[in-house]
Every structure is written in C-alpha cells, then in structure tokens.
Amino acid sequence: xxxxxxxxxxxxxxxxxxxNHQRDKRHIIESRAQHIIASAIRLLEQIDxxxxxxxxxxxxxxxxxxxxxxxxxxxxxxxxxxxxD
Length: 85
Hints:
Blueprint: H1 2-50, H2 53-69, H3 72-81
C-alpha cells in the first residue's frame, strides 16, 4: 500500500516540477525579450538623434530588417557606409 501512495506522490511532484519548469522557461524568455526590446528602442532613439532624417530612417529600416532576416551583417554594412552628420 505504501508503495502505491509513494508512487502517486512522486507522480504529482513530477507534474508540479514540469509545470514550474515550463513557467521558468517562459519567465526567462519574457525577461530576455523585455531587455532586448528596451535596448532596441534606446538604439533607435540614439540613431534618430545622431543621424539626419533620411539616414536615420534608412538605418532604422535596415536595423529592423536585419532582425527579421536574422542577419546582423545587413545592418553593419549599412552602418559602415553611413556618415555621421
């Protein structure tokens, strides 16, 4: 009788641990996303303040496109070709 009880308790504990693990993964992703998005916003604001209107628009577009395409080199190439006013 005690083995069955222990087995049921072990299963309940395992279910609880799996659910918490899922919550932890979600929390980590949510936290990282929050930091990355805040950083991206600060970068876009800095680009807007450092470059002229057309240059800033182009860099902002290239930055967002680099994220969508998952290719940082697209933004870096544009950044190297752009002169600071």
